[in-house]
Write a structure and sequence with these properties.
alpha/beta, TIM Barrel, 2 domains, 8-stranded parallel sheet, 4-stranded antiparallel sheet, 16 helices, 36% helix, cytoplasm, EC 2.4.2.64, TGT-like_sf
């Protein structure tokens, strides 16, 4: 199949392989010269989140075994622990964690929201008070890109942007968005020494203001020759789904065709399907790993929820309430999902065993479900790519939603269905219908 376009930068080759004839969905390939032992990163791609260079309960060997090719870390947290000095001595994060594949690092901008009570931002940068030891940290574009992310040695580094909660209104949004453009120029300058080893992505902002999103993308794409990719930031923060889809659709219509498009903070299966159709290539989210620690497994029809005890990030025990209509898994000896290639399902680890292990507070239960959820999403993205390449993506989307809607009482079907599962919805949400209609899919 002839490539539609090829763009080559100092440390990245980006191939546009195929575009859906109906929607904006597309298949692309990213080649990193130093970290492609398993081949290129194929998009659309979901990136598991290893904030501090690790995913709880999962080894790098297990990540390789499920064919994860691009992992996400966080510059703010890695800048605290283990810190740039240790990472430099180790030879970068790849060597430090023995991970031979791709790494993308976020710049620390999101922590301006998640740690808003411990931070303040001005033109220089963001002043943080560490939640770990109360030490102070000034995170500037130069510190994030030129020092911390350079010491990490990630294949993709994100610019430091001024992030506000997505529902912020008024002049503050305009000022923070324009500051993100100014900070991009500082990031570009700080990135120049690493240009042949790392790729800098710009992050477009603008909250829910259409005119500001247009302005930001217009200004940032003027720097197209100095950055290697673009991200859509500032979403997935509790805004209405109709607003979310409107901004994504608007952004992909303006971003360059010959560069990667990364939608930050998105990882619910339904969101991935819709946003691929709208033209996004790359995604990340803590959802599949975090929800696994609650005993929740992703399956084709929604979620399996186990009545389990759970260790929170604070080390506190609590009981997760369960819909009483769901079957108790004590005597359910089936795998989480038949045919799934994850270590739990392919290894005949039953729902009954997982139920007992969660109840006994065994950490390996969460590890099994984490690997299952990651496998599920990585396989979903592979199926999406295959459907796009076959120019059958609209049909794939319709079948996806059919599986996740509760069957009627007269329906027959797979024995896994109907009795002990929580379907994602009774009918396709209206926001999905409207978003997909914009790219010519009628549900």
């Amino acid at each position: 199949m002839p490539l539609l376009s090829v763009w080559t930068g100092p440390s990245l080759r980006f191939d546009l392989v195929f575009e859906c004839s109906t929607t904006r969905a597309r298949v692309c390939r990213l080649f990193f010269p130093s970290h492609c032992p398993a081949g290129p990163v194929e998009t659309p791609v979901y990136m598991p989140v290893g904030t501090q260079g690790t995913i709880k309960g999962v080894t790098v060997g297990q990540l390789e075994a499920i064919d994860c090719r691009l992992l996400l870390g966080n510059a703010y947290h890695l800048g605290h622990r283990p810190g740039p000095e240790t990472l430099i001595l180790a030879g970068g994060l790849h060597a430090f964690m023995s991970w031979p594949r791709g790494i993308l690092t976020d710049s620390g901008g999101f922590q301006m929201v998640s740690l808003s009570k411990l931070s303040s931002t001005d033109e220089q940068g963001t002043h943080f008070c560490s939640p770990h030891d109360s030490s102070e940290m000034l995170l500037t574009p130069e510190e994030s890109v030129g020092r911390i992310q350079a010491s990490i040695g990630s294949d993709i580094v994100m610019q430091l942007d001024h992030v506000l909660h997505v529902k912020t209104l008024g002049e503050e949004v305009y000022e923070s968005t324009r500051r993100s453009v100014r900070w991009l120029d500082r990031c570009i300058e700080a990135h120049k020494p690493q240009l042949r080893h790392q790729n800098l992505f710009a992050i477009t902002q603008g909250a829910l203001y259409d005119d500001l999103r247009d302005e930001c993308i217009r200004e940032m794409t003027k720097r197209k020759d100095e950055v290697q990719g673009f991200a859509v930031g500032g979403l997935s923060g509790g805004e209405a789904k109709t607003d979310f889809c409107r901004i994504v659709h608007q952004s992909t219509s303006l971003l360059p065709r010959d560069r990667p498009r990364y939608l930050m903070g998105v990882g619910f299966p339904i969101d991935l399907i819709v946003c691929v159709a709208l033209g996004c290539d790359m995604f990340d989210c803590v959802y599949p790993t975090r929800t696994a620690r609650f005993g929740q497994a992703l399956v084709d029809w929604g979620l399996i929820r186990a009545p389990v005890h759970y260790i929170s990030d604070l080390g506190l025990w609590f009981y997760l309430e369960v819909n009483l209509r769901l079957t108790n898994y004590t005597y359910d000896f089936r795998p989480i999902q038949s045919g799934c290639p994850c270590p739990a399902c392919s290894g005949n680890i039953s729902r009954s065993w997982l139920h007992a292990a969660f109840g006994a507070r065994q950490s390996n239960a969460a590890s099994y479900v984490t690997l299952h959820n990651l496998t599920y999403l990585l396989n979903l993205m592979r199926q999406i790519r295959e459907a796009i390449l076959a120019d059958a993506f609209p049909r794939f989307v319709r079948e996806f939603f059919q599986r996740r809607c509760r069957p009627s009482k007269t329906s027959s079907g797979n024995s896994d269905f109907h009795i002990d599962v929580e379907y994602e919805f009774d009918e396709v949400p209206s926001w999905c219908v409207e978003a997909l209609k914009k790219v010519n899919i009628n549900l």
